[in-house]
Each structure stands twice: as structure tokens, then as C-alpha cells.
Amino acid sequence: MITCVVDYVIDPEKIADFERFAAEWMRLVRREGGVHHGYFLPAEGASDEARALFSFESLAAYERYRTLFGVDPEFVAADRIRDESGCVIRYRRTFLRPLLPE
Question: Entry's InterPro entries (predicted)?
Fold first, then answer.
């Protein structure tokens, strides 16, 4: 299993747009066989940080999912929410492997 952690810098004035964007990506990750662990948004005070975590069975499975970016109409529409609203200022992806309790 591989988990993708996406750290976002978001526009705090556009949380509703970010939530729409996030809802679409949670649905699309599930559609493509991944497990979405959720988006984590600012909860208290002023903050411009958010995070998402989702897993695929392998790096190869994640890479198959990535081939749909810019091609699949639903992926394009989800990215359009981000691009047109400006809710995401920048983001960074990190890949981790979980060590889970037995």
C-alpha cells in the first residue's frame, strides 16, 4: 500500500470552493479503486493549510489513476473547480507507506 499525502496552501476566503473540489476528488479516488482518508481543513483560527490523504494498493495502481489527469472528463471538471476558483494557492505531494498495528 502507498499513501499519498497532499499538503495544500489554500485561500482561507475560499473554503467552500475547496470543499467542493475536495468532495469531487474523494469520489474520484474511490471510483478508481483508492481509499480516501479525507481532507483535513482549518478548524480554528486563521489558517491557510489543508491536507489530504489517500491510498492505493501499490505505486503502480496510483500511476494508473494518474494517467486519467487531463484526459478523463470528470478529472478535468474537478481540476476546473480549483483553477477557476483559485481556492488552492499551491500544493505538494509526498508518498508514504503505512506501518500499521498488527
Answer: Dimeric_a/b-barrel (IPR011008), NIPSNAP (IPR012577)
